[in-house]
What does this fold into?
Amino acid sequence: MILKILLIEDNPDHIEITKRILRKASEDYQLDVAMDSREGLKMIFEGSYDAVLCDYRLPDSTALDVLKEINNKNKKVPFIVVTALGNEKVAVDMMKEGAYDYIVKDVLYSDTLDMIIKKAIDRYGVNKEKERLEKEIIKAYRGLKETQGQLIQAEKLSAVGQLASGVAHEVRNPLGIILQGVNYLEKKISAKETDIYEILIMLKDNVKRADKIINALLDFSRVASLDLKPEDVNSILEVSISLVRTRFKFENIDVIMETKQGIPSALADKNKLEQVFINLLLNAIQAMPAGGKIIIRTYDKILEEIKKGIGRREGDYFRVGEKAIIIEIEDTGSGISEENLKKIFDPFFTTKGPTGGAGLGLSVTQNIINEHKGFISVESQIGKGTKLTVILHAAEDVLKREG
Amino acid sequence: MDKKKILIIDDEEGFTKLVKLNLEETGEYMVKIENNSSNAFKTAKEFKPDLILLDIMMPGMDGGDVASELKTDNVLKDIPVVFLTAIIREDEMDSQDGSIGGHPFIAKPVSAKDLIKHIKKYIG
It folds into this structure.
């Protein structure tokens, strides 16, 4: 195997000596020479050397500067410093910077050079392997964490779903009693008692509020029965937008449509998807109390990359090579902190305060998308805005696959 | 004009008591309460209501069982039954044609005003 070595050295005698030593040691060495650091660095970055031998004192700088520049550019190469006699302290400093070894220009130079180069190359190989393994371990750990997170999320969702109809029954009955009681009292008090009348109105409003939470819970538990058909996501978006259009005007929000005309149909439940879009639009509006922009994009894309949920395994929602329909809803609002980002799909997580909602909007949304065997993801930057991306199956691909 | 007779079968005592108060307050109805679904058939036989309000989720016999039992009687089978339920939302009533097994239903919590509106639909 050819070993490509770069020598950075300005002394012609020394260049010649090194050439001879290496030629004698092995036919595998191929030596290139750079006369100063500028040329040396250029060759290091452009070529691929198995090792670099660098004289400490160069006409335009030192080996330390060369090594620092290599580290800055994150280039990895076994780097060996050649020093003059008595300059070992410098060499040790260089090793601290990440040089692989040093060699002194003395009588032993010719005997040890070959060994030192090979040792450095070996160590470099071991280090590279170690780094690769570390990266693999980190990747596997991240994957595991992600799966664990998804399992916890799925568990939470199913627990809430199972509870929903029981809770609905247990809460709505007392609500029914309160409402009937309030209705009775309304008729029994005289018109003069405005204070009491106000209290009764408040009670009625709060019955409605509690009932709204129960409705959200029931929605949440019922997404399992989807009516999937080929649907045009642009038309569903238009309907959803029309339902919240007055809010846009009222809250000083511009809507920018970047939808792809003639986009292939997605396999979707029209009503549920409408609910998803409305939820996302309302969240976007709420993120921009001082107004702003909502950018809505739709496009289709062939999935090429194997990643979470995209692959060839049985449990993967999407196949590599499959066409996906992508919907993005982006706002220019306040953004979501990293800590909250982790929780936004959790049931009952809300930042909107006690009157804002039950904290079920996004978990219902995620549940609906899960039932579509699609994905929803979120990206956000504090102060810049938030982007929600929904990925659905193209109807033609699924129908073809299922015959 | 004779008062219309309404039988409410629901295990929620507070609810039945207040519905009775609200309906009788109008002067148009006479309301009988049955909190024990097992006695529903017997009470209906005796009271001969013009309309039955029937809760679905009850301990022992549920609303569906009671409705089936009422159907076995030649007289009772023609009395309109309106189900009361806490597990269906009001806005879903339209999507389900407002009926369960051919019977109309009302979602709880329901206001006295809405309840009367529903009742009037079936017995004028």
Remarks:
- The radius of gyration of chain B is 13 Å.
- DSSP finds four helices and six strands in chain B.
- Chain B has a mean pLDDT of 87.
